Amino acid sequence: MSIKRADALRVAVLASGRGSNLQAVIDAIEAGTVQAKIIAVISNKKDAPALERARRHGLSDLFVDPKPYAGKPDSREAYDRELLEVLQRHDVELVLLAGYMKIVTKVLVEAFANRMMNIHPSLLPSFPGLEVQKKAIEWGCKLAGCTVHFVTEGIDEGPIILQAAVPILDDDTSDTLAARILAQEHKIYPRAVQLFTEGRLRVEGRRVLIEAGKPEGDSIISPS
Ligand code: GAR
Question: CA-to-CA distance for 95 and 42, rounded, in angstroms?
Fold first, then answer.
């Protein structure tokens, strides 16, 4: 059972690359399993395939060039101020980082506290950062996975919303493991967005508690 909003949640997606997680969210919205609307897909890379995916689905795509800010003091913050202006102008309620390979500063983190999510291909807090599938194999881990978390100033550090685990097999390479993890990313990211949409995520310190769905209206329909 879910709580239905009268209007769709207004979401922006920040992506730098391939955009398969963006695609998973688009697909879930189009299938009606996520009640949200993607207001804009924004990239720091002009040729990001994610922007092309947005265009294919009739979504607004926007390249925000980091170059004019390069080399200036507080260049990252200045860049994020430009993003913030765009996000606020469009009344964005939730920001999704989906393969966004740029560190977000407190300009965005504070404005979107508990309203900005990231997906990361490891079972955090193990293996933040880059090349994490390779590191998990090299450590001899038997399980790997992915994490959706709220974004705080520390990299890959915010309160964890959902995780999914997969086995690491003896003959895995970084690529085979990344593919196995990615299939799970595509499941849990849309799911986390839908939980947010339903108002079911409650942050208590480092923990995110998921509240049970409430019945619609004043009746309980069984089976739901
Ligand atoms: C995904 O595996 C995502 O978890 C990872 O980048 C990939 C983007 O793929 N993100 C990070 O490593 C962030 N720390 P996609 O562009 O196909 O969604």
Answer: 10
Residues labelled as active-site residues: 120
Atom from ligand 1 closest to the CA of residue 132: 12
The pick from 126, 182, 193 for probing ligand 1's pocket by mutation, whose C-beta has the most ligand atoms within 8 angstroms, reads: 182
Domain 9-222 classified CATH 3.40.50.170? yes
Is 108:64 a contact under the CB 8 Å cutoff? Answer: no
What's the pLDDT tens digit per position in 67-115? 999 988 899 999 999 999 999 999 999 999 999 999 999 999 999 999 9
pTM of model > 0.90: yes
- CA–CA distance, 118 with 155 (Å, rounded to integer): 10
C-alpha 20 – ligand 1 centre gap (Å): 8
Domain boundary assignment for the chain: 9-222
pLDDT in tens, 141-172: 999 999 999 999 999 999 999 999 999 999 99
